[in-house]
Design goal:
This protein has helices at residues 3-15, 28-32, 39-51, 69-78, and strands at 26-27, 55-59, 63-67. The protein is α+β, with helices and mostly antiparallel strands and 82 residues long.
Amino acid sequence: MENKLLTLHTIYDLVKDNPHPTTSLLQSNELILRQNFPWDEVVNHLNYLQAEGLVIMTQLSVAAISITDKGLQYMLELTPVI
C-alpha cells in the first residue's frame, strides 16, 4: 500500500468506531504517534489526501484533521484487502 494511503488508514483506524467519524477531529500528535514516517512526509501525505477530497485539514490552535465521507467510503472498500 502506498505510504499516503497508510496515513489515510491510520486516520480511518482512529475514527472508525466513532458514531460520526467524519466529524471527528484529530490532532497532529495523534498521527505522529502512529506513523513510521517523518512529520514532513506525513504533511505531504495529508496535502495529497486533501487534494483528493479524502481528508480535510483545518487550522485551529493546532492543525485538526478529519476524514471525509469520500475518505471513509474509500477505506471501507479497501479494508477487506488490508
